[in-house]
Amino acid sequence: MMQHMKMILLIAIAMSTGTSAFYGTAVSMRPFGSRQVAVCETASQRSGMVMRYAKQDFSRIQKYNKKLQQLAPVYKTARSSTNLNPLTAEKVESILLSKETSDLIAKCNAKLRRKLILKTRNVAWKVGVEVSSEYGVPMTHEELMAHNWEEGKVRKEAKKAKFDAVFAEMDKFQAIKKQRAADKVARQEAFEQRTAERGANPPSFDFTPITDPITAKEGGPELVDKLVAEADSQAADEPAEAIELAGASKSATTAAEAEA
Fold first, then answer.
1. Are 89 and 128 in contact (CB under 8 A)?
2. Which residues contact 92 (CB under 8 A, 6 or more apart)?
3. pLDDT tens digits, residue range 40-52?
4. Strands 35-42 and 25-32, bridge-based pairing
5. What is the pLDDT of the chain when averaged over all its residues?
């Protein structure tokens, strides 16, 4: 009897696993309290999209909370009842209902966007300000295409103006360069013309030798020869005089030694 029950149980388990594999379901064991129970998941549930907050959404939440902190009441002390920062319609319109905040909310995912819009409407309701239906709503595909088209036109115009300014500077530089080249050609032509004129009319030079004023006088050559001879004789006498002076000093020294 026990063997038959085991066989029936094994057959039932085999049929259940085969059916789940055929129909795309799986059986997983998950903890539930102190017991392990089987939880059936379909293939669509396993691969379905889950609306979670991305890293950018957390950053947008922080930015939105900072805007709410600007509207938060401020008191002198913890027990004071005097609000130094009362909530007014002007502040709500300038901070929460601004285009910057609307664009910030429009960039969030659907779940977070609905949450922030509801929060904004609650704050605006307190001061009696109505929130438009277009607040925080992202643009449709057609609106996005038109918006991108307009932005593209603005960028193209700015780019065209930039390149026009660059080309104008280049044309100005090329004009200056051409003017300098023309001035150089004109200077070269003027130099060649002056050179040609000098070749046609060469300057006259006086090649008469310059005479010495001494030799130009009467009896000058004889006077020059006399002066040269006197200089040579004086140069020849100087060594003899030096020898005589040396001999005289030596004899005087010998005489003094003999007397001693």
1. yes
2. 71, 123, 124, 127, 129
3. 444 344 444 445 6
4. antiparallel
5. 74
